[in-house]
Amino acid sequence: MKIGIIGAGHMGSAFARRLAAADHELALTARDLDEAREVATKVGGKVRAVPQAEVAEGTDALILAVPYQQAADALRAVRHTDGKAVVDITNPLKPDMSGLLVGHTTSAAEEIQRAVPGAKVVKAFNTVFAQILGTPPSGGEGANGHPKVQVFYAGDDAGAKDTVRRLIESAAFEAVDAGPLANARYLEPLGMLNIWFGHVAGRGTGNAPRWVPA
Q1: In whole angstroms, what is the distance from residue 156 CA to residue 32 CA?
Q2: pLDDT at position 143, please?
Q3: How many CB atoms are closer than 10 A to CB 199?
């Protein structure tokens, strides 16, 4: 697949490493294009840095890997987003990380969809830390009693959801359909809880929530 990644920070660079290892063709951008170039050079393979306006051109999907407060503006700065599957990975954290800016009656994903109505937003990857995401899969992942990390995804467009499902599975994660985009209202608090466990409760960033049968 051809994937555009908006953002070259911890999550954006982690996506670049993981997806490059899965042999995807990647276009990477950031507000500071030199930052994107540096990440592209380090990752190598089929990764190239491009200006922000051009990151969607010729791609099958976009990954929005910037903080929530920057997400809508970052997506508006990109050309050709109409009809494009856009993966929103954000958790709408307060600046002090004490909670969420929005929730219950809306979500970050829904607000981004309203801001850029032509895009087809799919919530995904917001419960996966960069440490997990940026580690290319090994032969033992999903084997030897170690289950694959689950990635929950939610959206309203069936075609966009199918694109995101294939992207998740290509990166050696287990894709779990979490329903319509409005269910991002539940996924984002789950992401906040995951952050609390990882950074406040001291469980570290090598963990992720998993839905298992009783």
Answers
A1: 32
A2: 46
A3: 13
